[in-house]
Structure formats: C-alpha cells, structure tokens
Write a structure and sequence with these properties.
Helices cover 49% and strands 11% of the residues. By secondary structure, the protein is an alpha/beta fold. The strands form 3 sheets. Strands 12-11-10-13-14-15-16-17 form an 8-stranded mixed sheet, sandwiched between helices. The chain has a 6-stranded mixed sheet with strand order 1-2-3-4-6-9, with helices on both faces. A 3-stranded mixed sheet has the order 5-7-8. The structure holds 3-hydroxybutanoyl-coenzyme A and 1,4-dihydronicotinamide adenine dinucleotide. 3-hydroxybutanoyl-coenzyme A binds next to strand 5, helix 3 and helix 12.
C-alpha cells in the first residue's frame, strides 16, 4: 500500500481508494501501486468483490496530461495494462464515481464490470479537446455499452454527460443520491452473493451488432458529428475509431485506436491543444492576486445599457443563476432590450436547449429599471453604454453617488482608458474593465482590464465570478484595445492593403479558413458591423479607404444585407458582390496601384506576423502577463484555430527567426510600422529561443 492507493476491507469487499490530488490523474506514481493492489485483491480468495473509489473532490479525471510527451506516459504499467489487469479479475468489480470520471478515468471505470455513480457526477471522454482520442479502449468500450450513436456524440464533442443520462444509456448501472461508497460496496456484495454472470464490457456485442446492419446511418452520423472539424484531425480519428468498434473485432479496434492515439499525441495539433489546456489554467494565476486574497461576495449584478452587449452580459449572469438589475436610459430602450433577451431565450427553447420552465425562471431573475437608485443593492455593476468618454463619465459619476461601499464598478469599454474612467469616481480601487465579447452570452472570453489602482480583491472577485458564469478570464493591462482588439488592429489594416494590391475579400478569407479560422477578416467585419470601426476611426482621425467607402454607402455588413459581401434576403451566407470588386479596383487605380496576384502565403505573412509582433510589444509593455495569456485571448475571443495553439504558440512553431526575417523584409518593402520587429522578438530570435522560453523563464 502507498499513500496514493489504500485498500480496506468491508464485508469481504476490497475497497481500493485512490488519492492523487487535485483530480486523481493517472500518473505513473498512481498506476503502479494501483496495478499491484488490483492483482493482490484478485489473487486473495477472501476478497469476494472489489470497489474502486477516489478520495477528494473527484473520481479519476483522466491520464496525467503533464506526462504526455515524456517517457512516463508509456512506462509500465500504462493505462492499458491497468485495464487489462482489471479484465483478468473473475469477481465483481465496481467503480464508485463521484465528481468527474473523464478520459482515462472513465476508461478505467469501463474496465470494471459495473459502475455506480453519485447523482451529481459527470462522465465523459474529453480527449478530443486535447487533440486526442480516448487511448485506453474508450472508443471501443463506450459504444458497446452506450451504443455507437451516443458514444460518437460524446467522443467527438468531448462534452461530459450527467449521471442520469449515463444511466439511461447504460454507461452506469446505478445512481445514488448519497452514500456512494456504501452503495457501491452493497452493489458489489450483492453481485458476488447472487453469483452474477460477469460479462466484460469488451465482450458485450448487442448494441454494436445492431448498428453493424446499418452502416449508412452510422456514416451519416459521423458526417454530421465531424462537419465542423475545420482541419482538426482528432475528431476524424475519434469518429473512425467508433466506427471500428462497430465493424471490427474488439482487439483489432483497440489496436487501431492505439495507432491513432500515438499519431495524435505526437502531432502538432495535440501539442497546441494541450498547451491551451494549461494556458487557460495559468491565466487564472495573476500576479498580486494569490490564494490569500479573498473575493468579495456577489449576490446581485447591475448592468447599465440593454443594447447588443448589455443584454448578452446580463444573460450570462442570469444563466449562471445570478439576479441582474438592468438599467436603460429610457422605458423604450429598456423594453427593446428586454424583448431581445426574451427572443434569444425563445430561440434556445425552440432549439430544445432550454425548457419553457427554465426560460421563465431566467426571465424572473431580471429586474428592469430606468432609475439609478435601484442599483444601490448591487455588488457588481457593469456599464455597457455607448463608447463615448462623455457618456461613460456621466454613468460613472452617477454610480459613484449611488453604489454601496465595496461595490465593484466595471466598464465594458472596447478601447477607452480604464484609468480615466476610474478617475470619474472617488473609488478607483473598485473600478476595472470587464471586456466581454459579442455575442456576450455565447463567447467565452472575458478580458479583465486591470487599472492602475484596481484592488487585488476586485480582480479576485471577477476571476471567481467569471468561472461561475463559465467564462474564460484573462487579466490584461490598460492600452488602446487591450490585448485582443489591439492585435486585431494590426491585422485589419494590412487586410485592407491586400485588397488594394490585388487580393479580393474572398481570397483573403479563404486563406484564413484554409488555415483553420472559422471565418476570415472580411466575413468577420461584416458580422460585427463595419460601422463600429468606422466610428472609432473617425474619432481618432484615421482612415481605411475601402471600409470607409463601404460605410459611406450604408454597407455596414450583415445587418444591412451588404458589406464586403452581399447577403440576400436576410441570409448569413456571403456572396461575391461585383460592386465591391469594382470599388476596390477603382480605389486601387485611383492610387496608382498595379494590382497583382497575391499568394496565400503572403496573405498570412502580412496579416498574422504583424499580430505576433504586436503580441511581442504587448509583452514588452507588460499589458499581458505571459505569452500564453495572449493565446487564450485569441483562441477564445477571435477564433484563432485551436489546433495551432494561439498566435504566440504558433509563432514558436513557425520559428521566430523566420518571422523576424519576413517582418524585416516587409518593413523594408512597405516602411509600415506594423512590420517593424519588436525588440523582444528580435532578442528571442537571435538567441534561437521562443515565447515558451520567455514563459518558462529560460529566456
Ligand atoms: N492531468 C494533469 N493535470 C490535470 C489534469 C490531468 N488530466 N486535470 C486537471 N489537472 C490539473 C490542472 O492543470 C490544475 O492544475 P493547477 O492547479 O496546477 O493549475 C488542477 O489539476 C486543477 O484543475 P482545474 O483548475 O481544471 O480544476 P477544476 O475543478 O476547475 O476542473 C476537471 C476539474 C473538470 C477535472 C478539469 O481539470 C479537467 O477537465 N481536466 C482534464 C480532464 C481531461 O481532459 N481528461 C482526459 C485526459 S487525456 C486521457 O485521459 C487520455 C487517455 O484516453 C489515454
Ligand atoms: P449598443 O449601442 O448596442 O448599446 C448601448 C446601450 O446603452 C443602448 O441601448 C443605449 O440606450 C444605452 N445607453 C446609452 N447611454 C446610457 C445611459 N447613460 N444610461 C443607460 N443606458 C444608456 O452598444 P454596444 O454594442 O452594446 O456597446 C456597449 C459597450 O460595449 C461599448 O462601450 C462598446 O465599445 C462595448 N463593446 C461592444 C462590442 C460589440 O461587439 N458591440 C464588443 C465588446 C465591447
């Protein structure tokens, strides 16, 4: 026995308890004693059944991701060996599941004859989110228990399911409200004493045999499940492996699963996605905000402005169960905002993702008002009014007068100076930026903008509440556009230049979607609305010749049916517009530009390398704490392909020396500042290092 694995005996049932905090990951240090404990219990004739349970907050939540890429992953006993040991046992084996049984954790449980789960437990095979597939038999055993269609949905999405759903689909055998281990022991003892016929999951054939007769239905389900793979290999291998479970004998399917796993775990996409897994957790660690800093209590949130952003922000809190007082400038605007919120919930109901009852419950959490006095009991108040400093001043002055002491005052500004906004109050320590992304009830990213005077417990509070409302927070510093929009700015200017020099919106967007983005810059402009950037540029005295001309013609993008593309009859599908082609050609000839064919490589170099360069400046200035924070911003807020790990991770893969060389080339050719290599980039490149070295402290 080790402290990680302990065994006790209850009524002749051996209870093997794993204790490897924080999430009982299956590191080598756990696997070895567990294998020994299983063999000992198997060979002990006084043991009539075995229960596998975990101490702490959760059942096993997977293989130890930190071991991937090190010799420890395959060091014997590996996870497959452990499951093989389980399958040599001729007495009832029961996994007692609480918390989350994920990945290798669920695979381990599937190596047992039975599974008993706590009612609040979740089970899932999330490997695809790490660019992998379940590599210890999950793709072969889950379809045999739950049926191929359910297993396919779980494995390709990576989303966990609740205990009740798992019971319904046969993944668990019993669900208990409390007393999990007692229930599992009783279950195991009963199976032993009734001499239950024990069938290993691998030997259960009914559900896969049924599917074998209808290959076309399975293929159709696979096509649907993998439709949005966007160049990611893992979803395809996951789906193929589930199909193998149906079409091939168990051992052959298992062998193929192993081959796919090795291919994926050694590939760049999985490395990128594993980087993002840890990056997201790193982002929650903020200098000056350690675990001793206690968050303030948030029981009610106020949202000012029920427009595009205010409505979505309010929905995010309500969806997390937090009541919201929503304030508008007048009754009419308030009514309009609430109608949009109700319509959005209605869409969820019609799609089947929300019940009528849940919709009514959520709507009941909104308190609409036009009276600032009604915000006095709010613990956090977020302003999402027009992007004009005068309007922000008016709002924050009023808030300073009515908000209770200790209330946190936040601005959703995209570009304005959070320190200036904090200065409109006598409590700058309670002020910060909470920059949500549109649509705010959907998009995961939350840029938390730390002002010069923002108190550490204010940051701790917003970090904690972000988790409660399922957002991915990244703390950033004050500058124009913070991290995301600032880097977007350097990309956008060059996208316009490419049009004048010979590209079309279609060719630029295609280079982006081929790279793995869900959409290119021009589709994104049309979606967000060209007028937003136009207004900002006008206030700063800046110009973007094509975009400005489109706006002057009332072409604001999808909302007006026309932008860089044409959207016919309310459709969201972009169509080439000859008028735009002509406009671009005319503007180019007016500037004396000889348009030419521009390669995808050039498009990517001229748009993405400046982003990396801006990222380096952001790091130099301390606006982002670490390179991986920038990757989290871009993958969660702007659709940077997760298989490439975010701009800074991708830059390391490209090689910083190559990026510097090409930036210098473009700088020499165009003289534009966006191509002038940042000192940090030059330094890292000259030392043959990358952003990863900067983060690891080795640069
Ligand atoms: N391996 C190594 N470390 C892990 C880990 C894992 N599988 N899962 C979580 N951790 C670490 C986190 O990095 C974090 O470390 P830190 O405190 O140093 O930053 C710590 O555990 C706590 O994690 P969270 O902050 O995420 O804790 P939460 O309570 O919010 O969430 C969780 C818990 C739902 C279990 C979440 O951590 C999670 O989703 N983990 C990953 C699950 C997963 O992907 N499993 C599959 C692994 S791959 C696999 O099993 C391959 C197999 O098929 C062969
Ligand atoms: P919007 O124009 O859709 O909504 C603003 C709302 O604020 C309007 O309904 C208006 O009636 C209300 N309002 C104006 N002054 C008010 C006041 N004094 N008191 C109460 N209500 C008032 O604007 P949107 O797009 O929601 O933007 C709001 C803020 O969010 C801006 O600062 C913007 O920069 C920022 N933002 C916008 C994003 C977007 O994609 N639209 C993304 C991220 C941030």
């Amino acid at each position: 026995m080790s402290s990680i694995v302990s065994v006790s005996s209850r009524d002749g049932v051996a209870v093997i308890t794993l204790d490897n905090p924080p999430v009982n990951a299956l590191s080598y240090a756990l696997r070895d004693p567990l294998n020994k404990a299983l063999i000992a219990a198997r060979d002990d004739d006084t043991v009539k059944a075995i229960v596998l349970t975990c101490a702490g907050r959760t059942f096993v939540s997977g293989a130890d991701i930190r071991e991937f890429g090190t010799p420890l992953t395959s060091k014997e006993p590996n996870l497959g060996d452990l499951i093989a040991t389980l399958e040599t046992i001729n007495k009832p084996t029961v996994a007692a599941i609480h918390g989350t049984a994920l990945g290798g954790g669920l695979e381990l449980a599937l190596g047992c004859y039975f599974r008993v789960a706590d009612a609040k437990a979740m089970v899932g095979l999330p490997e695809v989110k790490l660019g992998l597939l379940p590599g210890a038999g999950g793709t072969q055993r889950a379809p045999r228990l739950a049926g191929p269609q359910k297993a396919l949905a779980m494995i390709v999405s990576g989303n966990p399911i609740g205990a009740a759903d798992a019971l319904k689909h046969g993944l668990v055998d019993q669900v208990v409200e409390d007393g999990l281990v007692d229930a599992a022991v009783a279950f195991a003892a009963a199976k032993a004493s009734e001499g239950a016929h024990l069938i290993l999951v691998r030997d259960r054939d009914e559900k896969v045999a049924a599917a074998r007769g209808d290959e076309a239905a399975l293929d159709a389900a696979i096509k649907k499940a993998t439709a949005k793979a966007r160049g990611l290999v893992a979803p395809l291998r996951c789906a193929q492996s589930v199909k193998n479970a149906v079409m091939l004998p168990f051992e052959e399917g298992l062998k193929k699963e192993r081959e796919y796993f090795i291919e994926l775990v050694t590939g760049d996409q999985s490395k990128a996605q594993r980087h993002l897994f840890f990056a997201q957790r790193e982002a929650a660690k903020v200098s000056g905000v350690d675990k001793t800093v206690k968050p303030r209590a948030i029981n009610r949130v106020g949202v000012i402005g029920a427009g595009t952003m205010g409505g979505g922000i309010a929905m995010s809190f309500v969806n997390g169960g937090i009541p919201v007082t929503i304030l508008e400038a007048n009754e009419e605007a308030l009514k309009r905002g609430l109608a949009t919120i109700e319509k959005n919930y209605g869409i969820s109901v019609s799609r089947g993702s929300l019940s009528d009852e849940a919709k009514a419950k959520r709507l009941a959490l909104f308190t609409p008002t036009t009276d600032y006095g009604d915000l006095a009991d709010c613990d956090l108040i977020i302003e999402a009014v027009f992007e004009e400093i005068g309007v922000k001043e008016d709002v924050f002055t009023k808030l300073d007068a009515i908000a209770k002491p200790g209330a946190i005052l936040a601005s959703n500004t995209s570009y304005l100076d959070v320190n200036t906004i904090a200065g409109f109050t006598k409590r700058p320590q309670d002020v910060l930026g909470t920059h949500f992304f549109s649509p705010a009830n959907v998009m995961k990213l939350l840029e938390i903008v730390r002002g010069e005077k923002t108190a550490p417990d204010v940051l701790a509070t917003i970090l904690a509440i972000a988790k409660r409302i399922s957002k991915v927070p990244v703390v950033v510093g004050v500058c124009h556009g913070f991290v995301g929009n600032r880097m977007l700015g350097s990309r956008s200017a060059e996208s316009e230049a490419l049009l004048l020099e010979g590209s079309s919106p279609e060719s630029v967007d295609k280079a982006f979607t081929d790279f793995g983005w869900p959409m290119g810059p021009f589709q994104m402009f049309d979606l967000a609305g060209l007028d937003i950037g136009w207004r900002t540029r006008k206030s700063l005295g800046l110009k973007a010749v094509i975009s400005d001309t489109l706006c002057e013609a009332g072409r604001y993008g999808q909302k007006t049916g026309k932008g860089y593309y044409l959207y016919e009859d309310g459709s969201r599908v972009p169509k080439t517009d000859p008028e735009v082609e002509k406009l671009i050609a005319d503007k180019a000839s007016g500037k004396g530009i000889n348009r030419r064919t521009i390669s995808d490589q050039e498009i990517l170099e001229r748009t993405l390398y400046p982003m990396v360069n801006e990222g380096a400046l952001i790091l130099e200035e301390g606006i982002a704490e670490r390179p991986s924070d920038i990757d989290i911003v871009w993958t969660n807020g702007y659709g940077f392909p997760i298989g490439k790990g975010g701009p800074m991770f991708w830059a390391d893969m490209e090689g910083l020396d190559k990026i510097v060389e090409r930036l210098e080339y473009w700088h020499g050719k165009t003289g534009k500042d966006v191509f002038k290599p940042a000192a940090l980039l030059v330094k890292l490149a000259s030392e043959k290092k990358g952003f990863a070295d900067l983060q690891a402290g080795t640069a």
